[in-house]
């Protein structure tokens, strides 16, 4: 069964591939995602006590990502930015809410395809210039391919 249009990451062989509905996970806010590659706690922190396993508020998360419009067009990617991953502090609104929600449920090394509803992305405003041209139209649901590269404990 097809599940909410979750398909098409940079590593996906078929951008129109569908996934088994039972594989779809959801965040409390309504973002949906499918794990493409399982992650795990680092061997040096297998218990998670050092803070490098599960992201939590204040954790520094480092991700690679590609963002897609509903038509499959890439609108943003860490690959376009010289291949440099994005680092952000979880819970500090440095990225859209939907990304925070999905990343907060990932383990290091995990790769997911996510469907972020517009309310958890750019909402009614979209990403538009004063002249009315939009990179992301208002009320647009977005697809992301996300890899959580690492997690660092919140600074003390």
From TrEMBL:
<keyword id="KW-0413">Isomerase</keyword>
<dbReference type="InterPro" id="IPR046357">
    <property type="entry name" value="PPIase_dom_sf"/>
</dbReference>
<dbReference type="GO" id="GO:0003755">
    <property type="term" value="F:peptidyl-prolyl cis-trans isomerase activity"/>
</dbReference>
<dbReference type="Pfam" id="PF00254">
    <property type="entry name" value="FKBP_C"/>
</dbReference>
<dbReference type="InterPro" id="IPR001179">
    <property type="entry name" value="PPIase_FKBP_dom"/>
</dbReference>
<feature type="domain" description="PPIase FKBP-type">
    <location>
        <begin position="58"/>
        <end position="152"/>
    </location>
</feature>
<keyword id="KW-0697">Rotamase</keyword>
<protein>
    <recommendedName>
        <fullName>peptidylprolyl isomerase</fullName>
        <ecNumber>5.2.1.8</ecNumber>
    </recommendedName>
</protein>
